[in-house]
């Protein structure tokens, strides 16, 4: 991915640097050759060359680009789990995924970690984005997922003679886990995604179900993943599954819905980030009836939302790390609505806007393993910057409105936003 050349100045806005520090009312960011050289008060800013390119924040907010920490590029208006593996052929899935990546960037998301992707498409999307073939967030690929036979992602009955290879690798036993991870290594992934527990959306493997993978299987996945220098995560709702994942050495926990004190203690000892993905629950409750969702499933989502929110509160209070990622791509939880996860955390969970933004920037970059490169506006880091029309601390929901996105920069290159259409604000070389 090309970085900008020369000097740029983003000024006339409140600066939120992503570290959790107090915002600076009259802030400015200086960028040289795609990297930040200064971020702070305009009063303390060093001089810049008179020919520096300037971006006027119009009195709005200057902040780091957002990080979607649970991104499904190949999910597109999924109305039922079965749609994931039989709805479209790989060629069309790839085109849809590229469109979703472009949309994410337009929404202010300059980086994303894949939480599972059909046909290993995210690996090739990552290459295409890095080579400026298509626009999109900086990606961490995970490819196909791993699930135990009969678990959450194994719904095709044997008589149909249809496998699940485009979506998941089904395993039964530790040896098959090792083989599955090795296949993913060969595919070029950075993250291995597994399914240790069930979900409210699947009553035969519900959200308290912990037998989608045994501890021995999880342990084999972790050992093989780490042996290859990669990271592993898991869909963990049930309390026992969360503890199994932490004991096995998982690098992050997806959802972390039902956590007792022992699970929280394990989490804090290991400093393991959690990505709750709670907007999916809220959207399922609000719109599930429109899509024929049975009441027992909606009741399960209600429980997941309430208990997941309480777990997130406890994690934050204990000093743990939370990433923002809303499991988007379902018909009732569409791509392009990513910032609704942040609004939910402020209005329902009770996080402050500044805490939520830190989770969606700094912590997201740390989850991707790239916290030293982006996620905060600090000297030496890549100039992945979001400029927003309005005060996002006063109203976090502003981030949901793409019309309020003034500029999205990656490595100092103005990629999208309202200001791109204005004279003099063309993307720099």
Describe what you observe in this structure:
There is one protein chain. The chain has 429 residues and is α/β, with parallel strands linked by helices. It folds into two domains: 7-64 and 375-421, Urease, subunit C, domain 1, CATH 2.30.40.10; 66-367, Metal-dependent hydrolases (TIM Barrel), CATH 3.20.20. It is built from eleven helices and 17 strands. The strands form three sheets. Strands 1, 2, 3, 4, 5, 15, 16 and 17 form an eight-stranded mixed beta sheet that branches. Strands 10-9-11-12-13-14 form a six-stranded parallel beta sheet, covered by helices on one side. It has a three-stranded parallel beta sheet with strand order 6-7-8. A hairpin with a 2-residue loop joins strand 2 and strand 3. The longest helix is centred in the last third of the chain and has 24 residues, at 295-318. The radius of gyration is 21 Å and the shape is globular. The mean pLDDT is 93.
What labels would you give this structure?
8-stranded mixed β-sheet, Urease, subunit C, domain 1, 11 helices, 6-stranded parallel β-sheet, single chain, 429 residues, alpha/beta, 2 domains, 32% helix, TIM Barrel
């Amino acid at each position: 991915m090309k970085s900008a050349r020369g000097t740029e100045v983003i000024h006339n806005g409140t600066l939120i640097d992503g570290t959790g520090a107090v915002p600076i009312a009259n802030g400015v960011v200086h960028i040289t050759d795609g990297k930040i050289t200064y971020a702070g008060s305009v009063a303390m800013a060093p001089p810049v060359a008179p020919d520096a390119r300037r971006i006027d924040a119009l009195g709005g907010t200057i902040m780091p680009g957002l990080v979607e920490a649970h991104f499904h590029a190949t999910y597109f208006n999924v109305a039922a789990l079965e749609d994931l593996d039989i709805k479209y052929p790989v060629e069309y899935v790839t085109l849809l995924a590229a469109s979703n990546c472009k949309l994410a960037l337009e929404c202010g998301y300059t980086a994303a970690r894949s939480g599972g992707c059909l046909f290993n498409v995210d690996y090739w999307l990552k290459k295409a984005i890095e080579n400026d073939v298509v626009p999109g967030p900086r990606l961490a690929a995970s490819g196909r997922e791993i699930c135990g036979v009969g678990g959450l992602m194994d719904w095709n009955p044997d008589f149909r003679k249809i496998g699940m290879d485009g979506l998941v690798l089904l395993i039964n036993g530790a040896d098959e886990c090792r083989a599955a991870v090795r296949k993913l290594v060969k595919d070029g992934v950075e993250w291995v995604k597994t399914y240790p527990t069930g979900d409210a959306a699947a009553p035969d493997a519900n959200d308290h179900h912990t037998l989608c993978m045994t501890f021995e299987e999880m342990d084999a996945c972790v050992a093989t993943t780490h042996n290859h220098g990669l990271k592993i995560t898991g869909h963990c709702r049930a309390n026992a599954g969360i503890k199994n994942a932490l004991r096995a050495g998982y690098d992050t926990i997806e959802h972390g819905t039902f956590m007792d004190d022992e699970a929280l203690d394990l989490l804090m000892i290991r400093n393991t980030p959690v990505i709750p993905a709670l907007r999916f629950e809220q959207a399922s409750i609000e719109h599930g009836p429109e899509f024929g969702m049975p009441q027992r499933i909606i009741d399960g989502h209600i429980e997941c939302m309430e208990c997941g929110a309480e777990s997130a509160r406890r994690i934050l209070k204990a000093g743990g790390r939370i990433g923002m990622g809303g499991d988007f791509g379902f018909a009732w939880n569409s791509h392009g609505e990513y910032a609704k996860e942040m609004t939910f955390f402020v209005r329902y969970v009770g996080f402050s806007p500044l805490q939520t933004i830190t989770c969606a920037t700094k912590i997201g970059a740390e989850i991707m393993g790239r916290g030293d490169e982006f996620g905060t506006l600090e000297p030496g880091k890549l100039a992945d910057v979001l400029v927003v029309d309005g005060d996002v601390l006063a109203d976090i929901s502003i981030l949901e409105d793409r019309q309020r996105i003034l500029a999205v920069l990656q490595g100092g290159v103005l990629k999208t936003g309202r200001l791109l259409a204005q004279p003099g604000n063309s993307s720099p070389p």
